[in-house]
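Task card 7
Instruction: Convert sequence to structure tokens.
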Amino acid sequence: HYPTAKEVLVCSSDGVMTHLCTTLQTHGLTVYLVRKQNDKIILLNNKTRETQAHSLVSVPEIPTLEEFINQLKDILKAEQKRTSNAWVNLSRLSYLFEAKYQLTLNQVVSLRLPGKLTTDIFSDYPKEFVTHHIPGTSNFYVTLFEKPISFIKKTSYLKTIQLKPTVKPVSKIESKSDLEEILVKLLKDLKTNYKDPYVPIAHIATEFKKQYSRPITQLMRDLNLKGTFPKFLQSLGAFKLKKVGKAYQVALRLDGLNALVIEQ
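Output:
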């Protein structure tokens, strides 16, 4: 009845169909035994025993680049509101995106930005996102780039917001008090990205190296300031520390006491 047919799908596991399959194969037809497994259809080549799997679940449509950016921003805003923290870990963002859209970040990036890494989507759009990577770890954080309030003058904006900060001379840091003053200013600047008054000390160390092109620990050695960076902050009256897991976070001390207690 079907002289041009080349393949036949047999959708029955009944043993009586075995003779039919053999007969069809002797007439030069390729026979596939079909069965359903969870959300997939499995096709078994009755002769070669090779299998093919076909999903019954429709593949979500890949968003355009503009839609993708907006989706990421919406997720970031919702997570920031939920946690009261401006920074969101990339792994958390990836999980939330996949849970909401049934797509991975990598699937979208590989189609819309061929050859790019997932992290490139954030660095390629500096007007939308700000990123932070803690040195020596795989922790990659993302936040939204907040545009300056409209009534701030352009000149003031250029002084306070520098996307490419210039390297500052460390020669002006000659004492412990000089370094304390600089760290206070750094912490005040970083706090604009946090609702919580505490900031990871690793972020301060990273920002210091970015601005002064020298690790904070190296400068401490140059000034004969012994101990670790957390111990040094402990010794300063301007800061208070607390330990979260294995890492320290720091906030400005408002009570003016010189003694410092680490909050557990």
